[in-house]
Amino acid sequence: MPVAVQENQPSSSKVNGRTEEEEDLEIDYSEIEEKYAVSPLDGFDNVLVVDNVPVIDEGKKKKLYERLRSTIAKAGAPLSGEADAEGNFSDMVMPWDNEKGESKGYMFLTYPSAELATHALRCLDQVLFGKNRLYVNRFGEIERYASMNIEEGSTPKNWPADSQAVDKEHLRSWLADPQGRDQFVTFRDTAVEINWCGRNATAERAVEPNPKWAELFVSWSPLGTYFTTLHRPGVALWQGKSFSEPHRFTHPGVRLVDFSPCENYLVTFAPEPIVASPQDPDSPPDPRKFAPEDEGNHIAVWEVKTGLLLRTFPGEAPSPPPPAGVDPKDLPPPRKLAWPLLRWSPDDKYVARCLMGSQISVYEAPTMGLLDKKSIKIDGVLDFDWCPDAELSANGKENMLAFWTPEVENQPARVSLMAIPSRTTPRQKNLYNVADVKLHWQDQGTYLCCKVDRLNRSKKVNSSNLELFRVKEKDYPIEAVELKEVCSQFAWEPKGSRFAMVTTSEPNAILPPGQLPKNNVEFFHVDSKKGIFRLMRRLENKTTNSLSWSPKGRFIVLATIGLSIKHDLEFWDLDFTTDDKVHKNETDPGANMQLLATGEHYGMSEIAWDPSGRYVASTASSFRNSPEPGYTIWDFKGQDLSRNQLDKFKQFLWRPRPATVLGKDEQKKIRKNLREYSKRFDEEDAAEESNVSAELIAHRRRLIDEWNAWRAKRIKELAAERQKAGLEAIPAVTQDEERETVEEWIEETIDETEEVVMS
Amino acid sequence: MKPILLQGHERSLTQIVYNKEGDLLFTASKDHIINVWFSSNGERLGTYSGHNGSVWSLACDSQSKLLLSGAADNTMKLWDIKTGECLKTWEFPTAVKRVAWSDNDNLALCITEQRSGHQGAIRVYEISHDGDCKNQPDEPITEFSPIGSKATVAAFAPLGHEIITGHESGKVALFDAKTGEEIESNERAHSGAVTDLQLSPDGTYFVTSSKDKTARIHDTKNLAVIKTFTTETPLNSACITPLKPYVIVGGGQDARSVTTTSTRSGKFETRFWHRVFEEEVGRVRGHFGPINTIAVHPEGKAFASGGEDGYVRVHWFDDSYFRSRPYGDLEPAD
Prior knowledge:
Mean pLDDT of chain A: 83
Number of strands of chain A: 45
Largest sheet of chain A: 5 strands, antiparallel
Largest interface: A-B, 34 and 32 residues
Number of domains of chain B: 1
Low-confidence stretches of chain A: 1-17
Radius of gyration of chain A: 37 Å
Largest sheet of chain B: 4 strands, antiparallel
Distance between the termini of chain B: 24 Å
Shape of chain B: globular
Number of helices of chain B: 2
Helix content of chain B: under 10%
Helix content of chain A: 10-25%
CATH class of chain B: Mainly Beta
Distance between the termini of chain A: 154 Å
Order of helices and strands of chain B: EEEEEEEEEEEEEEEEEEEEEEEHEEEEEH
Shape of chain A: extended
Number of strands of chain B: 28
Strand content of chain B: over 45%
CATH topology of chain B: Methylamine Dehydrogenase, Chain H
CATH superfamily of the domain at 39-151 in chain A: RRM (RNA recognition motif) domain
Structural class of chain B: mainly beta
Number of helices of chain A: 9
Oligomer: heterodimer
């Protein structure tokens, strides 16, 4: 910078250096000044300014120089200068704050020619250096930008008019619906529609459908902000009230998508390996496209707001070779990790992936660098999951994940909790005779249930164990619940301490067609006196194979899905009361459980609660070859409100909602004044109802009028035509005058013989 | 509304028609036989035998004197309804899929199947009513083959100057009965084969059913689609009820896909739709196979359905049917 000022001196001194005499003569120098003015850019075409370089002290200088130079070289614009005796470079100058003994956080790069500098500018701008993104500008432009006369919020002159700041639509506008309705999306054949779910499940279009939405399938981001559509070339996110202006993420052949819990990152997966997108060799690499080093990978991680590609990962690792002396056929089929393969911590800080059998790799977002530069080696690890409690880091605690390892030789199987990033394991539990473990976190991270399938002596699975961790209590107490049967489904009550599960005594039985499975449904709760988990109620001889808790807890839908002959739904209330008070029955905790209603939805394949817990949708999707595609919306009491049998129906998805921003006290207050609110809502409902029926009647009246007008015209035309042809008009069919029935008996003598009977 | 079950066929029904007074019901079946029944009590009056193949189509004239039939034995026959005598047989190179009378009984049309080098053709005959009616012309006055998709169903427009056709592609067209010229067409009337076409009492509009699971009401004049009735099952037949503002539709899954549903019926119901509001108002169960053909009593007093199961079910409407006004005072003029 000082150099530039000196260079500019002559021109400025000329202006300032006018003598009084000259001024008196009123000679106009402006023309000459203009002609000989030296532009700040001249002569420095080959110098670049790099901002956002890490601030360091003297000790790290050498290392930083080395790393910077290698990063710059990697980006495609290497510097050719050699280091001098002190390790400084002539073509890379980093200004130093001598008082603080730190660098100032920017540097100058000098290239041999202006062309090379231009090329370097393209290559280096926006490049990631560790956690820092480098911002590169021409030396001359720094001056220009700095001297720009702009007020806060105003746009500089000479900007194209259309780059005016445009107010974007509010991303969460749907939450401000005065009636508090939820939205849902339906995908049928080649039409995707987003509707409001009104009272009694009446659908009202929320936005004009875009024909581009319907290609592969659609989904919502976890907080409902983005509507995601999958296309052959990649993923598009639609947002705001009108769902216009998509964000596009190019990943050809994409088949699966997943968002991080706070919607900051998007993960895409394609079964085909990534091919680098063709690039213009002259232009800098596009950070939104795949580069050659991404080739062969399957998974891509993107930043949602900027659309930048953060990192790509290979798909699933090949299964490890079988141990020596074991026939591969004797081994159980290789386990496969369920999607999502990349799992995010609830605060979006970390993302982890499991290399089955050897390690868990935790990456830091958004740099996607490996945490502490090394994976966590865990021999035999088969599955893991993050504690979903998003408050952990806000409360100054560490994120936590649970993982399990199977029995190897003389080592017992083990479930462990691990804190991230410290990698400490605050709690472990050894297990024996383990066939499989499933990890189920309660949605607030209060409890962790490890469902352990146990092997008996003949190496068959015939019972399950539950190991229940109390994660929020000191020393993580563990409680074991031994079952006599195998647990096939398990579900925690959201925001609660109860859980439901499906158990069966014949887990391996292959049922002949037409025969129903014999399952049991069990409910557990925390015994208020002893403080331990106790059986609350057992429902025997059920066909149920699916458990769906209301997102607000208390209500649960037990359903039979995927069987050819039974398709029932049962709506249960766990705290049934006739008044508004909750009755605790100490002796029989299951007494308050009440079956509210049963229903049937032929061929259903999915069940989904709306985020408010008011409605349940059961879907029969043609993706799952349901013979009668369509969807049904039920209320939480089990009343079917809207049945829609639609050919080629594919998807029904409720739009998720973010967590409430109201504090606990405010929520309590609302609950207390519920009666007053409901009075107002009832009035609104009544008004709406009369409104709707009036509208419907008007609509029907219009249809009738149109029909009558058209008929009158055609009847007149026909009468005229018939008259022309010399025919009478056709009498209209009327509900007639009494018709006379004439019955005519015809007696026909066919043959007549006379016989004399002798007596 | 207890149905009268007509058990006179050994194979599935193909078409059933009422005579103009509605006292007789003619039924055609794949068992080669045509039956005629008293519609009031289901008593069989007689049979018309002579065809040597599935009888695909029937048409009864307005005087209940002459019956036309078309069959898979490549013939169209003219019958004396009273005596059961076959008055005339026309032979063709391929099967006859549909026959129809014009409204003054002077013209008859037949559609022959497209097969083995023969184009599907529509022929129009002038029928003489002189004497014993045995002296009928051998040659048609018009013969033409629609270009493109073959015709599956047809009927005369009022006054008999034009022929309305429904095609395999879902197209509906209007042809000049004299020249065979296409006057009007609606290529996208349906997205699947048109399976039935029945006129309103005055012929100014008609209803078509289709494999695309919809039935539609069209304006005879310009073939514009006036109303659409969307169901979940391929439809085989549709008709318009006089007196009440409904259409009756019927169909069902193909026989081969039915077995995939065990406890459920294959949606073999006749369904009543309000023809102005396009809303379903009722269903009648009974058949245990797809419904192939539906006919309504010309005065709107009854309807009959013939199924793949070989049964014909005749339903006389109850008083409650005539009294019921599901939409209150909102009723169209006709």
